[in-house]
Amino acid sequence: MNIKADLSIIDIIGHLVLWLILSVITFGIALFFFPYSFARFVINRTSVIDTATGVERKMVCDISLFSNIGHIILWVIISLLTFGLGYIFYFYRVWNYALNNSRTQ
């Protein structure tokens, strides 16, 4: 099995600019939603290729930004209590959650 990601520079720049604008408008609150969007952005542009048969299967991430509001609130509190250090762990936990809620088509 091989993994192939189709991320173009234009897609990446567009995604980053969108989240930069959202972060400025919301005074940084959007940064707690960014890891979900980032994980979904990468996973949805990734394919798994079976090297034996050559069949390519697209990955799909089944999370949405607002379905995890309780999870986000918990990590906001943890990040505030740890003066931002908790956000580092939050990013890893979001990736764990996103990968566990992904599938191939």
What does this structure look like?
- With 105 residues, this protein is α+β, with helices and mostly antiparallel strands.
- It has one domain.
- It contains four helices and four strands; from the N terminus they run E-H-H-E-E-H-H-E.
- The protein has a four-stranded antiparallel sheet with strand order 1-2-3-4.
- Strand 2 and strand 3 form a beta hairpin.
- It is globular, with a radius of gyration of 16 Å.
- It starts with a strand and ends with a strand.
- The model has no long low-confidence stretch (mean pLDDT 90).
- InterPro entries: DUF6693 (IPR046515).
- It holds the Pfam family DUF6693.
- Keywords: Membrane, Transmembrane, Transmembrane helix.
Note the run of SSEs as H and E.
EHHEEHHE
Number of domains: 1
Helix content: 40-55%
Q: Beta-sheet strand percentage? A: 15-25%
Major sheet, described briefly? 4 strands, antiparallel
Rounded Rg: 16 Å
Q: Which features does this protein show?
A:
105 residues, alpha+beta, four-stranded antiparallel beta sheet, globular, transmembrane helix, DUF6693, membrane
Secondary structure: elements and pairs:
Blueprint: E1 2-5, H1 9-25, H2 34-43, E2 46-49, E3 56-61, H3 69-81, H4 86-100, E4 102-104
Antiparallel strand pairs: 1-2, 2-3, 3-4
Helix pairs in contact: 2-4
InterPro entries: DUF6693 (IPR046515)
Transmembrane segments: 12-34, 72-92
Keywords: Membrane, Transmembrane, Transmembrane helix
Compact summary:
InterPro entries: DUF6693. The chain is built from four helices and four strands; from the N terminus they run βααββααβ. The chain is α+β, with helices and mostly antiparallel strands and 105 residues long.
